[in-house]
């Protein structure tokens, strides 16, 4: 309360107006006294600002930074290069202080950046329309499933087993009270089992969701999966890695209905797991079912170019019975970062980043195949990430390599305790030939 401009006299006046004698009486009206904690919290005595700064700096020094390590971390968040221009732009006060445009047409700058972001996502995915962004890929996938249910009005959603485990949990949370059956399609040899999908899908299916590349990094047979899905009259929803679209077919080219993905790879720091950026795009025919908001371009009464919130599907803006979303905001600053990233690299730049990820990851994969005590888990084609099986527990290998200034990968035991001998290894364009060779040599010594 020290930074609020209230004096003890102000507090007394407010309490008197409320008919109370103390702040504790006010609390007792809101929080039952029997559950209030009255003991000492155990905090140390207050320090000066100078001393607090010293403590905070000492804590910050304990953080491990991927710039100080050779990083092969992945599983949804990746160590891609972030062009310096991004920070130079987003740290301008008009950008990093911008908030959700409630009085939208006053915020022309914010609306224009969202419009350009939507355009870039459509260009990248080859889809017709995109919304202003979502919180992350997991929430984007959940919203896409809900969107498909609203469109199809059926009762079942089929999710590939090889979608990121966190995304699967988010979908279950979102749809728990929606009277929708969630069916998990099993995998076989690192890919979604097409035969099992054919047996699971029926006329009650709203949508089929797959991740491409999937959680293990393998490339799915999306054309076959799309055909099975559409033959049953359901919607096909892939979860994609935006960087991969520099070298593999974008979802618009294999007839995806809705596409979602994680935009962290496009100019957003790993940040200990956030904030992230979910993107969502679809065919034009589903424009009125998109969650969140869509910014459009128009002209004013004088014929001048301007930007407006064209569509909003939240009950705050339209009749409750017509609402298809409760999303009230978007990841504006993260979306701007991705827009700058895509604009800076351009088509050729994205292709170059993707090619480097592909070639470097395959170089590492080829050499790991020759090591003892570790082997690739699958022989499937992959993009930039692959799964290995280790004789030692993966966590032990990872801890040993941290001492060598290497982040070796992500242990699957964090997602499934039974998979303690499996590790995901991701290779981005930042890794050099020398770093890859050093990793192979050090890994061979550890295992």
TrEMBL record:
GO molecular function terms attached to this record: glycine dehydrogenase (decarboxylating) activity
Lineage: Bacteria, Bacteria division WOR-3
Signal peptide feature range: none
Known catalytic reactions: N(6)-[(R)-lipoyl]-L-lysyl-[glycine-cleavage complex H protein] + glycine + H(+) = N(6)-[(R)-S(8)-aminomethyldihydrolipoyl]-L-lysyl-[glycine-cleavage complex H protein] + CO2
EC annotation from Swiss-Prot or TrEMBL: 1.4.4.2
Oligomeric and partner information: The glycine cleavage system is composed of four proteins: P, T, L and H. In this organism, the P 'protein' is a heterodimer of two subunits.
Protein name: Probable glycine dehydrogenase (decarboxylating) subunit 1
Pfam families attached to this UniProt entry: GDC-P (PF02347)
Key words of the record: Oxidoreductase
